[in-house]
Amino acid sequence: MADAQSDADKIRNKRLAKLGGGGSSSGSSNPGESSGATPPLQASEAPIEAPREEPSVPQQTAPPTLAPAPAPRADGRAPPRITITKRPAEQAETAVRPRSRQRETFEEWEDRVLCTIFRITLHPEHVKDAHGERVHFVSGVVADLNEQEAPMNMTIPMLDNAILEAVAASPQQKPLVYLLGCWKRVMKQLRALRGANADDPKLDVLKEAKKICMSYCIFAVTMPEIYGLPPAEDNALAEHLLADPECDGGICHDFIMEAVSRFPEEEEVRDAFVGAVEQLSRELAQMTMNMNFKPYVQALRSLVRYPAITDAITQSPLFLPEAESIEPQNIELDTLLGPWFRLSPLQGDVALNYFMGARTRDDAYIRNSQDALRMTLRTHQDELFDIANSIIKSSKNPRERLLDWFALAINKNHKRRALRINEKEVASDSFMINITAILDRLCEPFMDATFSKVDRIDIDYFRRSPRVDIHDETKINADQKMSDEFYSHQASGANNFISEVFFLTVAAHHYGAEAANSKLSQIQRDLKALEEHVADFEKKREQFAHNPQQLALFEAALKKHKDRIEKTHCIVSAVQGVLLDDLAQQRSLQLVRYICVWILRLVSPQSAFPKKPVTLPLPEEQPETYRCLPEYLIYDIVDNFKFVTRNMPHIILPAQCDELVTVCITFLRSSEYIKNPGLKASLVTILFYGTLPVRGRPKGILGDVLNASPFALKHLLHALMKFYIEAESTGVSSQFYDKFNIRYEIFQVIRCIWNSSIYRENLNTESKVNVNFFVHFVNLLINDVTFLLDESFSAFRNIHKLQDELEGPHAASLDETEKKDKEDALQENERKAKSYMQLTNETVSMLRVFTEALAPAFAMSEVVQRLADMLDHNLDSMVSEKQQNLKVRDAAGYGFDPRKLLSDMVSVYINLKDQPNFQLAVARDGRSYKPQNFANAVRILRIRPDLKTPEELATFLKFADTVQATKEADDQEEELLGEIPEEYLDPLMYTLMEDPVILPNSKVTIDRSTIRSHLLSDPHDPFNRMALRIEDVVPNTELKAKISAFRTEARERRIAEIQAQKEKDGAPSSADAIGLIEGGSLVETNLPATGDSNDRMDLSEG
Description:
This is Ubiquitin conjugation factor E4. The chain is mostly helical.
């Protein structure tokens, strides 16, 4: 044999020396070289010693005949051999009863077992083993045995060369495939000897065979040159991790355990596993659920069950790259865990498989497809949770790195909440929804129904180097300067695991599921616009009918757009299917409950909610910790509940509503705790959605709670009225129109609770205790009714005019431009009418409800004249000859029911009929008050007895008589006063003042009711525009006394004059002159006969 060693031999021997055995090309071993490099063995293994020169095992049979030596290699050297020596076993017979073979010696047993394990043979005539599997004839080993004149038995020292020869002869020269099969067979043999004595030499043989097999498996992964193969570009272990662990080419538990035991001493083994997982990640990044992804998921699930491997893969550079080095959209592709979390049925091509032809399918097909999609996603998310949970539980360092990875994915994707999202610059919905789902699952252990661990969520989390980045987030009630100052002072200590997971989950919902929901709404709007565009585009086909080439281009473009529409429909159905998952949304609701309780305890720590109710109003001093929180904590509550109540209210349990109602009422009652007016309005939206009827719950999800909760009964009505007032001025550009939507939702909530006598009593209390507050509320309600009726009727007048112009006799004379302009104007007015009429109906209805319950409050001097003027003006528009201008086609299509609206207005008159101030205010309306209008209204309503009973109509006519008499009396009162001195007249209304007050800044004297009414809409002095409150005005007692004396003197003087004149003329007394006509109604007496030109019915018929 040649003395010189090849480079491969040197590498091999160096590697073998480290593993515990020496080797040379000649097969001899040097004990001195190998003894110092032997790694520690497991406790069940005995240390390896250098081989002795003479074997001491007694010879029971004659040695077999030696086979001829193999021919030398072409280079003159003997076939290469690697020998890993074993410690000679004690020469004792095995304790295990031998098999029923005729007196099998230990050497024969060793030969048989090793040949079976490694599927080799020393006899060329043997080509298959007992199981019919092909065996490899190891001619080189036979030659060595012949050369040494040793018995023709396979032994441990000869195993190295045998393995190399067997690998060289194996199909396709895949060493690891062959060696993994050997590994499983040696483990099977070891399990068969599980009950043997510890000093059984057979155990020693099998343990040495196991060790050698593992060493050569590692060589196959890390040093393929040993087998004469070039260095592999791919990790050889990766494909075997994907195989079934039970098959010969799969990685089993025993193999992994043996490999893991070598991690401390052999970094190459550790790196091999890390490299394999990295390769699996890269391969999976190119796959979707349409492909064979399951083995990749199972492989990672299996590996992370071993803490050492988990620690190793989480230290991979791919696991957690630097935040600055990776773009948001690449996290799901280029990080180690990303491809596993990216998989989802939401991926475009996968969604197509579930919803192919969705546009033409019925709802049942879509629902079934969504059920199948949810089942697939749930299964995958269960597997992802198993992976994440295993990493979390392995040890502290992997857990911390996994949380860092979650934080990286969340913090880099803030743009997902932008108004317009660029899909190429953010992570996909698939990825973010999976992250949200897994974090939800991680929260479950500490989110119990009793909130026992809510105090473990640290209020100083964001002041302790938090993983969640909120620097650029809008804060609940702090500007950027205040927030930066607050967070510049770090809190001591470290954040606990519960706090980390809680805040990561809240942020994940904001940028994950809630962002997907917002994007879905935008996709649906874009889809509708695209469908309209395609519909218009199809109409142009005739333009290209005579040009085949252009027609072909047209059809290709049309197909492209239709394919895009089809794909978008599939994506919409898929996203809806994912978001409408009952189980996922129930977990979200549980998170929302915890957010509610945590925030309420933060702003009202003394209550320890829900053990005790929150005390309202909240303290004026707001906790800085609360003020500087990101406002998405509250937006998550709003968005989640709105989505659930709108789409799947059946999953909400009554017990889940208490915390939600408390949060809404608390921050509407103490609205100064929230800076964003839109966020405050969202709290009203929650209550509004919660009162919408659903199946089995006519009062909605929250209706029963609102009508039964002591906290709601005490605070809800005041909170709603307070925000009704605040909505008048929110500080945003759209505040004028936003307030009507807000107030519409407030009215719906009030309608839900109005049957409760407790709420009506509370309203009565508000009107007496908080007079200014209530007057302000009433004034705004009147303002709204006035504006909405004016806008609605203005739109109907325009529609009436435009319809006549477009369809009347002069329509043919319009050119195309004029016709197009009028059609556009008509569409705009129709849109306006529909929008305003819904708000008008609801606001007038609420005015009817409130005046019925609190008539005296609406007759206060500050508001009564404006209310009377508004009612008279609109009554005149609806029942006089002006009603013809409101006649439009299909009034119901605009939500316009004239008789119903008229009935509500008449109800307001009836509700206030006994209020002298209201009677006088109606009588003093010199612009619109007409007795005939009351008669016309009665005639119109008589057609609909379901709206007003005869008794109600009679009451209305009696009120009209009272007003007419009041007007006559007031006219006489004015005549009695005669000429009024200028100083006694109100400078704004030019009426005789009753309670004059001096404005502190301008020093102008004005009637208290006038300035109070002005301040309801404008908090400034009307004469110099300086800030003014009603509390600042100074009573002008001296002037009030003069006015009182003037009234008395003028009345007495005038009455004396009239009486003297009447006595002189013999006329009846003034009391008789202004008395009511007995035996009938003054108004009814003057009703026109049927068919009179004043009997206007067109509007009511419209």
